[in-house]
Amino acid sequence: MSTCKEPHHANHSHQHGPNCGHTAVRHGDHVDYLHDGHLHHMHGDHVDEHAIEVSDKNPDRCTPEHRCKGHEPGHKHGPGCGHEAVPHGDHVDYLVDGHLHHLHGDHCDDHGPLDKA
Predict the structure, then answer these.
(1) CA–CA gap between residue 97 and residue 75 (Å, rounded)
(2) For the CA atoms of 94, 97, 99, 104, what is the dihedral angle to 10 degrees?
(3) Where does the record place the region Disordered (predicted)?
(4) By C-alpha distance, which of 73, 74, 68, 65 is closest to 95?
(5) Rounded CA separation 67/56 (Å)
(6) Mean pLDDT for the stretch of residues 68-75
(7) Per-residue CA distances from 32 to 16, 21, 59, 76 (Å)
(8) pTM tops 0.90
């Protein structure tokens, strides 16, 4: 096992890469893959667990004025909602029409764009 200090995803035999079937996301200077609510980065002999950092590009703020055409009003994000879960800071957002949605009370907050690779 490498001396990598990143959190590892244990027992992960799937090899992520182009055409592996998972959404590829540009994350900093590399590509990660969305897989069952995780953001995976292939790193030598293991898979690192990553999260999109809270930043100016991907803020963690309330945006009640946000109106997205990617789902019906009143849609509730969560497991099985039809949108991919994305770790963002200390919470989970959902990928809708290229940007991160965060369920917040009676609305969805826009937590910025996510660049597909």
Answers:
(1) 14
(2) -50
(3) 1-23, 56-84
(4) 68
(5) 20
(6) 84
(7) 8, 13, 19, 26
(8) no
